[in-house]
């Protein structure tokens, strides 16, 4: 297909359906009912800041001048001339000039969210999908062919691990070598020149909270012609892998970006050339697999992105506060914002200024019995949070990773990934006051110590 122009900020949307002939329309006919904000001039340090970049993205107004954009809920789109449809399917006319065919291809509302995601991650383009897993699988299937090879972090979300270790070898003849992503020599040695297509890892790993040195890993991969794909679900705003050298950034938007635990969505952020190839009529993984985002979902998400920075800062502030206090009480806390975390200095050097060190912390209770007791107290005795998977919600969510979101791994794989049977992953929320919630957490911690179910570390 012709270039979609997803990254272009100067697309103007007309209020009446355009003809496929350039001679049949005039820019004077464009009414300001669908207006756009003029681009602002940003200083270099502002461009690196994700909130500033997001604020500078095109603002789409509603069809009747509303401050919020209208939802384009149509599945299909009409044309004024029969020849226009042929030209759209041939790739001559596309969304960059406001020509839409069908919402599985491109939808104006979803396209607007894609522009916002590209601005957030500092990439040339983006495409939003129906789930985080659909974004991940589509990228990998686009970049790898039968016989291909992936090098991936040993510590990954369980669904991604299963995709790479079980589904792709069976269904696609694509194999993966799993390595400790912090062992750069192991990463380099695992890459098979001419066969390895992708280096895949999470910026902050799920659930062990290992931090990837994105610039150095990109250098290693690029020296051997390998594409770097980074899952930044745990660290939106905190880290910007695309600005640090990564080729592609994927997200489960369902988590921090949504913030409401009510939406399933994903995103692929990267070069326009990649997004265009993924939308190719003959070979595009997004086009042909069809992980289409509902425009009503895209609208909801686009309204939440402007306050993502404020939410992330509070998530991170509370996570650091609780981690620091729990450590002083003698509990085994894993949080990259703590000085004794092995990757603290790495994250500090790579993180965007003022956003913190992430909204997730882990407490290692050593055994599943102790972990279950701890979570039961937190939910049912002190009302600190909820026992539930996922993350990024305004309430604290807790789960035992080994028996939930990482259950796809066997015991040996969990041990290599640093996931103990009693590892409790906590997505720290921001409801209530910090001290109110700390008193609830502290009450549960004291009960754990009083009943001798946990020995101090």
Query: Cα-atom Rg, whole angstroms?
Result: 23 Å
Q: What would the average pLDDT be, to the nearest integer?
A: 88
Number of strands: 12
Which runs of at least 5 residues are low in confidence (pLDDT < 50)?
A: 1-19, 21-46, 453-457
| Structure annotation, total helices | 16
Quote the distance from N terminus to C terminus.
Answer: 59 Å
Describe this structure as you would to a colleague.
- This protein is α/β, with parallel strands linked by helices.
- It is built from 16 helices and 12 strands.
- It has helices at residues 44-48, 50-55, 82-89, 108-121, 132-143, 158-172, 184-190, 214-223, 272-278, 285-289, 295-304, 308-328, 344-350, 368-381, 411-417, 434-450, and strands spanning 125-129, 149-153, 175-179, 196-202, 227-231, 248-252, 266-270, 333-334, 360-364, 385-387, 396-400, 423-427.
- It has a 7-stranded mixed sheet with strand order 1-7-6-5-4-2-3, sandwiched between helices.
- The protein starts with 43 loop residues before the first helix and ends in a 7-residue tail after the last helix.
- The relative contact order is 0.12.
- The model is unreliable at 1-19, 21-46 and 453-457 (pLDDT under 50).
Give a quick precis of the structure.
With 457 residues, this protein is an alpha/beta fold. The protein has 16 helices and 12 strands.
Task: Give the secondary structure arrangement, pairings included.
Elements: H1 44-48, H2 50-55, H3 82-89, H4 108-121, E1 125-129, H5 132-143, E2 149-153, H6 158-172, E3 175-179, H7 184-190, E4 196-202, H8 214-223, E5 227-231, E6 248-252, E7 266-270, H9 272-278, H10 285-289, H11 295-304, H12 308-328, E8 333-334, H13 344-350, E9 360-364, H14 368-381, E10 385-387, E11 396-400, H15 411-417, E12 423-427, H16 434-450
Parallel strand pairs: 2-3, 2-4, 4-5, 5-6, 10-11
Antiparallel strand pairs: 1-7, 6-7, 8-9, 9-12, 11-12
Helix pairs in contact: 4-11, 5-6, 14-16
């Amino acid at each position: 297909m012709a270039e979609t122009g997803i990254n272009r900020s100067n697309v103007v949307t007309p209020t009446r359906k355009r003809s496929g002939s350039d001679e049949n329309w005039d820019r004077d006919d464009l009414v300001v009912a669908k207006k756009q904000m003029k681009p602002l001039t940003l200083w270099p340090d502002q461009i690196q800041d994700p909130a500033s970049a997001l604020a500078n993205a095109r603002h789409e107004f509603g069809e009747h001048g509303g401050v919020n954009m209208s939802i384009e809920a149509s599945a299909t789109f009409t044309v004024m001339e029969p020849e226009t449809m042929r030209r759209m399917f041939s790739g001559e006319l596309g969304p960059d000039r406001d020509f839409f065919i069908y919402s599985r291809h491109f939808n104006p509302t979803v396209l607007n969210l894609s522009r916002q995601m590209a601005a957030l991650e500092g990439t040339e383009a983006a495409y939003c999908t129906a789930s985080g897993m659909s974004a991940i699988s589509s990228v990998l299937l686009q970049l790898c062919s039968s016989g291909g090879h992936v090098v991936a972090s040993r510590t990954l979300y369980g669904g991604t691990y299963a995709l790479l270790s079980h589904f792709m070898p069976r269904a696609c003849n694509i194999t993966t070598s799993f390595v400790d992503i912090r062992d750069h020599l192991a990463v380099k040695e695992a890459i098979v020149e001419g066969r390895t297509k992708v280096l895949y890892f999470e910026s902050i790993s799920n659930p062990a909270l290992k931090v990837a040195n994105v610039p150095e890993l990109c250098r290693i991969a690029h020296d051997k012609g390998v594409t770097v794909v980074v899952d930044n679900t745990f660290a939106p705003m905190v880290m910007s892998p695309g600005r640090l050298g990564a080729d592609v950034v994927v997200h489960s938007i369902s988590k921090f970006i949504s913030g409401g635990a009510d939406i399933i969505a994903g995103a692929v952020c990267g070069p326009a050339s990649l997004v265009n190839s993924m939308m190719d009529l003959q070979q595009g993984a997004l086009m042909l697999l069809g992980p289409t985002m509902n425009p009503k979902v895209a609208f909801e998400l686009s309204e939440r992105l402007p306050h993502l920075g404020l939410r992330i800062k509070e998530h991170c502030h509370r996570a650091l506060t609780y981690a620091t206090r729990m450590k002083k009480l003698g509990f085994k806390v894993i949080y990259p914002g703590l000085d004794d975390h092995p990757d603290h200095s790495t994250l500090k050097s790579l993180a965007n200024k003022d956003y913190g060190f992430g909204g997730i912390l882990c407490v290692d209770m050593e055994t599943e019995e102790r972990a279950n007791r701890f979570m039961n107290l937190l939910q049912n005795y002190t009302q600190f949070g909820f026992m539930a998977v996922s993350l990024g919600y305004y309430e604290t969510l807790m789960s035992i990773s080994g028996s939930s979101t990482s259950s796809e791994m066997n015991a040996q794989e969990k041990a290599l990934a640093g996931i103990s049977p009693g590892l409790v992953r906590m997505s720290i929320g921001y409801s209530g006051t910090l001290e109110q919630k700390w008193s609830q957490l502290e009450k549960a911690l004291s009960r754990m110590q009083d009943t001798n179910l946990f020995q101090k570390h």
